[in-house]
């Protein structure tokens, strides 16, 4: 198995074209972490149960542990590493940091990306819509409440800025 | 009260930016050139003798670099000196499904996994034990050959005054039985570790542990290495909750494999394996009998607990004592008898989960009091207010209570929840319930006996104006790194983000015992406070000379050192460091903290004492659907006496996280087992082990009660665990208020509610819960006269007839 020949694909990772070679059985999660050294994407089960490995694939949240790397040829992948631009945090990152929405921080990249996808589809979500959008992501530290507040505050700030 | 610039403010945590950018390196994020991957072969038998292990085929498999079995690691270990009952890999016996028997290191994880299939283990099955009751009934075959007889690991019997006589003085005497199902921590991060061996004889281990100091000791012991040649670095934990507080077999296995291969070796447990590591809440059966006067005052209490410990000792001896220790720190119990037993069973080992041994008895006690209040016709909030332990007092079991804000906490939640208009007055199906709790701010005694500090800090002042704090404490998401920065910044008058924090590295940082027992803010905080005050004294001396101002008149604030009578007369903090450095050389100080001596001197007095106790009161509102039995919790009101917030946002975050975890335990979380023998974990996965999602989480209204405790840094007490404790009984009491059935067991699942409702309809006892407590061969009690009987904290000598 260790001698299995690699496949090579081209895709866009965090707005930059990338070519990556990997064993064909690898998941997007493994390709990101092991072959592209993007360890900001975490894992909690590798079975599609916890949402911790959420990334955006063509703008839509996916569980990267359930997506084969091979399936991402020609597609756009966005990870937490791309959220801060030019040394400045994304508004969601600002509010997560300021309100204490990240405690251990392990599930945080996934929540940030799921929230980003929500806000781009629905810039002014209600509390209920936030809960619905984040229901696939588990967090064991915060009880989610600070996460809701951070999403709401970021939405408010992004709205004011737009 | 002096004005604080940092303390109490809702500041960002020092690691917040790293966490929101994905920059934080957790253990599995580490990778090194030529790194090997380790997998463990785990037992498929619940209880069996190992007849043989054949590893030749695995060892010669392409890509495999080393294979280990128990013979390679014969030295036992365990977190407590009295329970050194684990091996990195089982030597001659396996004790639960999931017990590791062999380890493989290979060039890829896939290769290591494939090689496991080539290892052949021959087992001779032994009768398995599935529950504590079974363990009591079946002393043979013994799971371990030590303990208090048969399959009983530990028996405790402590009596403070004549409890039976006390109970008899009550106007009413009530007995109740409760069961608390086991649950697990479920940190989002799976445990991971990387070991590296250097040819100069030095081992480095990065691991997601809450207790690098204890891992350091265990690794050095088992691998027979000089401790000075072992470096343990705790990586930031992706959640711990007590589940990463033991030294683990996988940590020792990768260390040994790194030594054998000379290459870095990594292991990351699968989610299934995390369930086997466990060390979670002990399933606990409890019986309590209390005598109470008509006015609600308690005359005596007798409490029994039976803990299902699983396959190993872990923290279990301490857990057993903890099921009896803290009943006395909330309400005045003048005479108290505690009997606790821990059994070995063939299931994943139990240990410390958030609240360690105290959520189970707290559930029992608070529901028991709810029933007593109803029997007496007293409002349960009033009943509790009448029986509160006074501040600055000694309990029957010699725990020293300092600041005590429970009365204020009760008043806050009673008012906030509109309790008086809701209790027993809401329409059928809706109810409110109240419960209280207390928790330790760190244990008074270390795990292994010694007279050294529990926490140490070194502090370096740089001529740039930057300050670095070195401390062994471990960041597990609770904010311990930030606490160090805030306290040092407050004392030195600088920006906390000018403080660099180096933690949890046994080569670089002074020992802190670890992130457990809610000890870190109080203990490492006090150590940091002392180091910072010493540094301020040195800087003030030299700044004062230069400014020609008496040093005691200097203020440290806003990055400056200045005359408190003339703020223009001053200098930048960095300049003060430079003057001091020019005069004295490099500026560094140390601080350390050792808890006060405990008052109890009897055997068993080591568990329970703490420098300070936090207090919480909680009201839960529930909706119960009588058709489905589903309990929904829209809102929880919680008041927590934290002494003083070091960071109010972090404190509220800990409270909300505790409520969340308590809600999970109240309604759904259970570590249950299936199969004919009831020893196979019931689907160890995040999907099937139910925990609250955003859709189940309730609203939380938090009130912080700040009554500074003289033993806490700036008066701070714990917050990470205490607020979890009252949630389960508050929900159970609210369910009773809603539908008048008693669920004397957690989790309160729809099935149990429906069964109790059915019994109610049939006119039977409207209750779901255990109905008996087994006969246990209790030892002769340790008898300790109470303080009000003139006791001195010592046990009376045993009289032999």
Descriptive terms for the model:
heterodimer, A: 162 residues, alpha+beta, Ubiquitin-like (UB roll), DNA polymerase, domain 1, 2 domains, five-stranded mixed sheet, 5 helices, 5 strands, 35% helix, globular, B: 801 residues, Aldehyde Oxidoreductase, domain 3, Aldehyde Oxidoreductase, domain 4, 3 domains, seven-stranded mixed sheet, 34 strands
Largest sheet of chain A: 5 strands, mixed
Unreliable segments of 5+ consecutive residues of chain A? none
- The CATH H-level superfamily of the largest domain in chain B is Aldehyde oxidase/xanthine dehydrogenase, molybdopterin binding domain
- The percent range for strand residues of chain B is 15-25%
Number of helices in the DSSP assignment of chain B: 19
Q: What is the chains' assembly state?
A: heterodimer
Structural class of chain B: alpha+beta
CATH fold-level assignment of the largest domain in chain B: Aldehyde Oxidoreductase, domain 4
| Element-by-element helix/strand order of chain A | EEHEEEHHHH
Report the largest inter-chain contact: A-B, 58 and 63 residues
What's the CATH class of the largest domain in chain B, please? Alpha Beta
Q: What's the gyration radius of chain B in Å?
A: 27 Å
Largest beta sheet of chain A: what is the strand line-up?
2-1-5-3-4
Strand residue percentage of chain A: 15-25%
CATH architecture of the largest domain in chain A: Roll
As residue ranges, the low-confidence spans of chain B are: none
Query: What is the average of the pLDDT values of chain B?
Result: 97
Short description:
The complex is a heterodimer of chains A (162) and B (801). Chain A has 162 residues and is of the alpha+beta class.
Q: Would you mind describing this structure in some detail?
A:
The complex is a heterodimer of chains A (162) and B (801). With 162 residues, chain A is α+β, with helices and mostly antiparallel strands. Chain A has 2 domains: 7-82, Ubiquitin-like (UB roll) (Roll), CATH 3.10.20.30; 91-161, [2Fe-2S]-binding domain (DNA polymerase, domain 1, Orthogonal Bundle). Chain A has helices spanning 28-35, 91-99, 108-121, 127-134, 145-161, and strands spanning 7-13, 16-22, 54-57, 60-63, 76-78. A 5-stranded mixed beta sheet of chain A has the order 2-1-5-3-4, sandwiched between helices. In chain A, strand 1 (7-13) and strand 2 (16-22) form a beta hairpin. In chain A, helix 2 (91-99) crosses helix 5. Chain A starts with 6 loop residues before the first strand and ends with a helix. The model of chain A has no long low-confidence stretch (mean pLDDT 96). Chain B is an alpha+beta fold. Chain B folds into 3 domains: 35-126 and 188-239 and 244-277, Alpha-Beta Complex (Aldehyde Oxidoreductase, domain 3), CATH 3.90.1170; 157-183 and 280-444 and 602-768, Aldehyde Oxidoreductase, domain 4 (2-Layer Sandwich); 452-593, Aldehyde Oxidoreductase, domain 4 (2-Layer Sandwich). Chain B contains 19 helices and 34 strands. In chain B, the strands form 9 sheets. Chain B has a 7-stranded mixed beta sheet with strand order 3-5-1-12-9-10-11, with helices on both faces. Chain B has a 7-stranded mixed beta sheet with strand order 32-8-13-14-15-7-34. A 4-stranded mixed beta sheet of chain B has the order 18-26-27-30, sandwiched between helices. In chain B, helix 6 links the parallel strand 10 and strand 11 (230-234). Chain B starts with 15 loop residues before the first helix and ends in a 17-residue tail after the last strand. In chain B, 63% of the residues are buried. The model of chain B has no long low-confidence stretch (mean pLDDT 97). Chains A and B meet through helix 2, helix 3, helix 4 and helix 5 of A and helix 1, helix 3 and helix 17 of B.
